[in-house]
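ok new one. same drill as before - structure tokens go in, u give me an amino acid for every spot. 473 of them this time. try not to just spam alanines like last time pls lmao
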């Protein structure tokens, strides 16, 4: 009955703007690591769900890399069936509170929302987050009937790709163990994305959803050093293995001065802050002296996180240095807006050519050059062209590199698995690697991408692994 009522809704009857989500004041939030956005109340969620036309052939679901049945869960919210709505999501994705916060919905489900042609699209991500948060608050669990099938599956890496693959294999009845090198699970969700965007307790709660399916998560286990992939499918007796080890190796520019004290990668800065709690020094034993002025090179999500973390760690001036313009920057619009509100200074069309020494081995500044935009390059973005004679100096104490990452190399170094020429794992279209029974997906195959694409890859590999293990769908 609910659905009939909603199908008759007309665009002209809908509230044109999406329901506002409350947010921490910029002046206050730069002093703390608390979450920037507060999420919807039940009333907000009901109002926003009321803006959905519940399209019979929902484009939003087609645009979702993990195929969440979006129209159904929104309809269930409208009907007041919040738990049912959460179960609809967790059928496809165990991490709605995570994905509702960090997915680039504007390019996926919300980007194709039918009402978006005339009004603001339905805030699908905020609704997803509302359900995820409510499930955590109210302790909901999803425990489908699982028939054990006696197959053992090993997952290497506990990032989004590994988690999604583990969930599907566990639901299919396999005995699943996830091996994680770090002392806490979650991959980039844990060590990369800061608490003010994705609190630890959200990750903990949603990893618990995985444990509730019977998955074992074994941390402090560096596969390749403790045992190899070949040993996993050999003497350790795993019937199939999935590799989701991500792309965590930072890139540098190879310019003079990169050896100086005060030069670090965004991953190091963020890991020290997020995983090792440098923000709570000396409460946690992780020193991180950034000095007064910090420059971050790059303008993707990682750069925005490094900039905003530096501010919260006490730097007085934090600058983004990027060789293209705002229009080409890969970060989500919301992240750039939040960074601007917080007082980050943007040096567009600029890049360093040298990092300058204070005479004692520490950074004192950066020599930079300005660019103009030329013809589009192979990425389709206009190529930055250096402007002769435009050199200038920036006074900085710390330089943070956020210009992209490469594959984590250990698996490639310790097994005979085939790699492509950039060092990422080579797979066929079903994500099978060169070793029988071993699959791979996420950033270790594609290079740095997004949480939801990694989860989509984990699910795709799981489908192929089930076929390989002859487990009926
Ligand atoms: P990862 O998340 O990298 O997880 C890989 C895991 O494998 C890690 O835990 C690692 O410790 C473990 N591992 C590696 N080698 C071994 C080994 N040999 N043995 C055992 N374990 C191993 N995407 C978005 O969609 N939205 C965002 O807002 C966003 N922000 C980001 C911010 C930052 C700072 C960064 C770095 C990335 C961001 N991304 C974002 C990208 C997104 O996080 C990644 O694309 C995604 O996490 C990739 O998932 P994955 O599972 O492939 O790898």
């Amino acid at each position: 009955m609910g659905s009939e009522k909603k199908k008759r809704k007309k665009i002209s009857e809908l509230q044109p703007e999406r329901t506002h989500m409350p947010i921490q004041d910029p002046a206050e939030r730069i002093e703390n690591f608390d979450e920037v956005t507060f999420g919807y109340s039940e009333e907000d969620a009901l109002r926003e769900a009321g803006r959905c036309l519940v399209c019979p052939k929902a484009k939003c679901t087609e645009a979702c890399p993990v195929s969440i049945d979006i129209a159904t869960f929104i309809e269930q919210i409208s009907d007041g069936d919040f738990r049912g709505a959460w179960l609809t999501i967790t059928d496809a994705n165990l991490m709605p509170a995570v994905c509702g916060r960090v997915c680039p919905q504007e390019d996926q489900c919300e980007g194709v929302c039918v009402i978006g042609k005339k009004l603001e699209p339905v805030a699908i991500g905020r609704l997803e987050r509302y359900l995820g948060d409510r499930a955590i608050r109210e302790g909901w669990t999803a425990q489908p009937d699982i028939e054990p099938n006696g197959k053992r599956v090993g997952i290497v890496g506990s990032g989004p790709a590994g988690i999604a693959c583990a969930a599907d294999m566990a639901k299919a009845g396999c005995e699943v163990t996830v091996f994680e090198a770090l002392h806490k699970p979650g991959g980039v969700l844990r060590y990369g994305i800061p608490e003010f965007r994705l609190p630890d307790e959200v990750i903990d709660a949603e990893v618990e959803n995985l444990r509730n399916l019977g998955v074992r998560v074994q941390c402090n286990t560096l596969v390749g050093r403790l045992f190899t992939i070949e040993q996993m499918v050999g003497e350790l007796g795993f019937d199939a293995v999935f590799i989701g080890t991500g792309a965590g190796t930072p890139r540098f520019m190879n310019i003079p001065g990169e050896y100086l004290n005060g030069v670090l990668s965004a991953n190091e800065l963020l890991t020290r802050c997020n995983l090792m709690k440098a923000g709570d020094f000396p409460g946690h034993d992780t020193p991180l002296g950034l000095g007064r002025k910090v420059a971050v090179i790059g303008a993707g999500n990682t750069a925005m996180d490094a900039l905003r973390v530096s501010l919260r760690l006490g730097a007085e001036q934090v600058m983004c240095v990027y060789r293209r313009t705002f229009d080409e920057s890969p970060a989500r619009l919301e992240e750039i807006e939040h960074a601007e509100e917080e007082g980050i200074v943007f040096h567009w069309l600029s890049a360093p050519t040298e990092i300058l020494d204070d005479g004692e081995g520490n950074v004192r500044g950066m020599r930079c050059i300005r660019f103009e935009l030329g013809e589009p390059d192979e990425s389709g973005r206009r190529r930055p062209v250096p402007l002769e004679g435009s050199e200038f100096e920036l006074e900085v104490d710390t330089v943070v590199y956020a210009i992209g990452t490469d594959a984590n190399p250990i698996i490639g170094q310790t097994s005979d698995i085939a790699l492509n020429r950039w060092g990422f794992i080579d797979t066929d279209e079903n994500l099978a690697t060169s070793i029988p029974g071993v699959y791979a997906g996420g950033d270790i195959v594609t290079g740095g991408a997004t949480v939801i694409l990694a989860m989509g890859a984990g699910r795709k590999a799981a489908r192929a692994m089930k076929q390989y293990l002859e487990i009926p769908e």
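The chain has 18 helices and 16 strands. and btw The mean pLDDT is 94.
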